[in-house]
């Protein structure tokens, strides 16, 4: 048994480690859904390699799009892995804080009734 | 299996949002009755871990990759499918708004697939199997495998309703990819549940804690 504080710190460290390893080891091939999009649009075979220039999102071009601060978990090409690590670290910590904040908020709203 | 905005027409995306919001409301009700000072660290750490695992695109050969979903993990550890809805919704909101992973108009569909379907399939497969095989780790591994496969198939069906993918090739491709990714999800889920049951047996759901006694 470890106490809550140690548990949070250990859990956050393990999460950050997984995220940072992901920056270097994660596959560059598209995710299952995008890969399926390439298959159905005839750009790739079901079991074949992904084409370098294949663009699965071409399927729905012209509809709604938006800009996000850190698209594709990076800070742009020029920042490379460093940008990737910053994006993942920020994302992991933000996730933990937001979920913790939301949980406390829900708990407080219950207690105040 | 994060659906980008362009893949589903807006009226259909709105329907998935409405379904997702109903489950989110139920998830918040679950959180109000279940969350206590001890469970908040667990839920926060699980969310951070699920965010990290989802950023790790594992190569599965065949020119594709997949990341873990974590719906079964959240539901089994916290003992409710609504835990998965609660955690996955927040993770998906952060991924969509900050990282452009999964669209905003289609976020309802992503919440439905990974949070709701993943959470319910994961939780009830685990509970059902546990009664039969009596082994929480085997049960959680199989549950996590199904909780990766079924949402992927649901996603393929949604794509076909949207007219983005034809039904059969979509089901075949999504099914094959996620049947393989699901094996990794199953193993990792069982390992994480084992570690959590060892570290904090008081926090995990009692049906998981059986094995650590």
Automatic annotation (TrEMBL), chain A:
Main location: membrane
Transmembrane segments annotated in the record for this chain: 7-26, 85-106
Protein name per its UniProtKB record: CbiM protein
Pfam families assigned: PDGLE (PF13190)
InterPro entries in the cross-refs: PDGLE_dom (IPR025937)
Compartment(s): Cell membrane
Domain PDGLE as annotated: residue spans: 5-107
Domain of life according to the entry: Archaea
Signal peptide: none
Organism: Methanospirillum hungatei JF-1 (strain ATCC 27890 / DSM 864 / NBRC 100397 / JF-1)
Annotated keywords: Cell membrane, Membrane, Transmembrane, Transmembrane helix
GO cellular component: plasma membrane
TrEMBL record, chain B:
GO CC aspect terms: plasma membrane
Alphabetical keyword list: Cell membrane, Membrane, Transmembrane, Transmembrane helix, Transport
Primary site of residence: membrane
Localization: Cell membrane
GO biological process, one term: transition metal ion transport
Spans traversing the lipid bilayer: 6-28, 40-60, 72-99, 111-130, 142-168, 175-197
Membrane association type: Multi-pass membrane protein
Protein name as catalogued: Cobalamin (Vitamin B12) biosynthesis CbiM protein
Organism: Methanospirillum hungatei JF-1 (strain ATCC 27890 / DSM 864 / NBRC 100397 / JF-1)
């Amino acid at each position: 048994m470890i106490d809550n504080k140690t548990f949070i710190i250990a859990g956050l460290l393990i999460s950050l480690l997984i995220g940072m390893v992901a920056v270097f080891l994660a596959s560059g091939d598209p995710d299952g859904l995008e890969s399926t999009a390439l298959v159905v649009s005839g750009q790739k075979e079901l079991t074949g390699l992904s084409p370098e220039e294949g663009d699965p999102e071409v399927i729905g071009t012209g509809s709604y799009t938006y800009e996000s601060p850190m698209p594709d978990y990076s800070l742009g090409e020029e920042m490379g892995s460093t940008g990737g690590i910053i994006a993942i670290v920020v994302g992991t910590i933000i996730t933990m804080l937001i979920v913790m904040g939301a949980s406390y908020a829900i708990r407080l709203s219950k207690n105040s009734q | 299996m994060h659906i980008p905005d362009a893949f589903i027409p807006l009226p259909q995306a709105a329907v998935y949002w409405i379904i997702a919001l109903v489950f989110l409301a139920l998830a918040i009700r679950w959180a109000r009755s279940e969350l206590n000072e001890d469970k908040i660290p667990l839920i926060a750490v699980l969310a951070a871990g699920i965010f990290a695992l989802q950023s790790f695109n594992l190569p599965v050969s065949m020119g594709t990759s997949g990341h873990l979903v974590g719906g079964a993990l959240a539901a089994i550890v916290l003992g409710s499918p609504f835990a998965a809805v609660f955690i996955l919704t927040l993770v998906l909101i952060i991924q969509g708004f900050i990282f452009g992973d999964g669209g905003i108009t289609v976020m309802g569909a992503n919440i439905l697939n990974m949070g709701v379907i993943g959470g319910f399939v994961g939780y009830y497969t685990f509970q059902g199997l546990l009664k039969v095989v009596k082994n929480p780790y085997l049960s959680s591994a199989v549950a996590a495998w199904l909780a990766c496969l079924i949402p992927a198939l649901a996603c393929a069906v949604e794509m076909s309703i949207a007219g983005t993918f034809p039904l059969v090739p979509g089901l075949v491709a999504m099914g094959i990819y996620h049947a393989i990714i699901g094996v990794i999800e199953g193993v990792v889920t069982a390992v994480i549940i084992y570690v959590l049951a060892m570290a904090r047996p008081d926090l995990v759901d009692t049906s998981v804690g059986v094995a650590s006694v």
